[in-house]
Amino acid sequence: MTARIIDGKAVARKLRAEYGARVEQLASRHGVRPGLAVILVGDNAASRVYVRNKVRACEEIGIRSELIALPADAPEAVLLAEIDRLNADSGTHGILVQLPLPGHIAMRRVLERISVDKDVDGFHLYNVGGLMTGTTVFPPCTPFGVQKLLEHERVEIAGRNVVVVGASNIVGKPTAMMLMQKDATVCICHKLTRDLAQFTLLADILVVAAGVPNLIVPQMVRTGAVVIDVGINRLADGSITGDVDFAGVSRKASLISPVPGGVGPMTVTMLLFNTLRSAERGVGIVDETDGLLAGI
Ligand code: NAD
Q: Which of 16, 194, 220, 229 could form a disulfide with 200 if both were Cys (CB 3.0 to 4.6 A apart)?
């Protein structure tokens, strides 16, 4: 068997075009332009790249973006005051604080300060709690991207065995909850899981988010499985690779996402979507078939 390769870039491009059209509709019909505020504290090089990509992606589809850069030694109170200002600003529909934060700032206090109605990263406890009940307002972007990719590729989720490798709060756990909400039977594995292969072999859909290159080799994958690789690892030669032995597993899976070019482009796309939906909800547009309540 040779797997079909999911073209995450193409899916992201198509979705961004759709979202861009909705942004313009909102602006022309309701006079509202979605706005995203991104707060960066310090000068972490990787964070700067992520923030730049988010701002650029906003521009591409007509979302207004505001970048607030605070120095690495900015007191927590300054950051909280900035969030309060943005919470009260009617032109800001989404607020994102780029993680990680410097050690002197309490991350949870910061995330909990963001209005739940503007929490487009989905990290506020209210939205995290909503993942348990299937009523989250903003699904977190990477797991949402995984779900959208599966939907786009028309992968049946209900009743299938899903194994998620990785149990982090930002990828593994929310992905598991979201796919369970879609009626999959879900198993979560982590670094202390004994004999990982006995679990991964059960997967109709295997989602891997561990941050370990070549963690998943063909012997660990059921013939015909769908394999979604979330991992991003930089190798010594500077190249980027995922967590899955792509060449080997491609000969066994039915569908596989590559790294780069799989889940990666979807993460920012879903951030744009969450921001757009926040602005749409602000003018009373509720579309329950569109990925939020009904979409997870
Ligand atoms: P994390 O380090 O917070 O969590 C890793 C998880 O994997 C943990 O639960 C850990 O127990 C598990 N794990 C580690 N080694 C393992 C092993 N040998 N066997 C089984 N489980 C193991 O990482 P994260 O933030 O969840 O990110 C995971 C990966 O996804 C990273 O490579 C990260 O760069 C990537 N990522 C990609 C995107 C994207 O947009 N594509 C977004 C976020 C994270």
A: 220
Question: Is 98 one of the annotated active-site residues of the chain?
Answer: yes
Please provide the DSSP assignment of the chain as one string: --PEEP-HHHHHHHHHHHHHHHHHHHHHHHS---EEEEEEES--HHHHHHHHHHHHHHHHTT-EEEEEEE-TT--HHHHHHHHHHHHH-TT--EEEEPSSPPTTS-HHHHHHHS-GGG-TT--SHHHHHHHHHT--SS--HHHHHHHHHHHHTT---TT-EEEEE---TTTHHHHHHHHHHTT-EEEEE-TT-SSHHHHHTT-SEEEE-S--TT-B-GGGS-TT-EEEE---EE-TTS-EE-SB-HHHHHTT-SEE--SSSSSHHHHHHHHHHHHHHHHHHHTT---TTSSSTTT-
Answer yes or no: 121 catalytic: yes
Pick the CATH number of 32-115 from 3.40.50.10860, 3.40.30.10, 3.40.50.720, 3.40.1580.10: 3.40.50.10860
Which pLDDT band, with edges at 50, 70 and 90, does 286 fall under?
A: confident
CA of 281 to the centre of ligand 1 (A): 32
Residue 292 has pLDDT above 70, yes or no: no
pLDDT of the residue at 1: 81
pTM of the predicted model over 0.70: yes
| Cβ(240) – ligand 1 distance below 6 Å | no
